[in-house]
Amino acid sequence: MNTASPSNAAPEGKQLLMKDIAGKWSKFSEAEIAALKNRDELVSGVQAKYNIDATQAGREVDGVLKGRSF
Fold this sequence. Notes:
Largest sheet: none
Radius of gyration: 13 Å
Oligomer: single chain
Structural class: mainly alpha
Low-confidence stretches: 1-9
Order of helices and strands: HHHH
Number of helices: 4
Number of strands: 0
């Protein structure tokens, strides 16, 4: 029987997502990553820190998110 509840799975998923973000974009501090609340904030941050346009930043973010959400 699976005893994991959805509320227990969500923090693990978010931790993995934050780890993936940190691995992809090293210019973000741990505090900046922890403060991210949604895809748009991440796209804006990637765009600003890596001096790329919004379309490219969106594609890169979507590649890391792989359908996951914050």
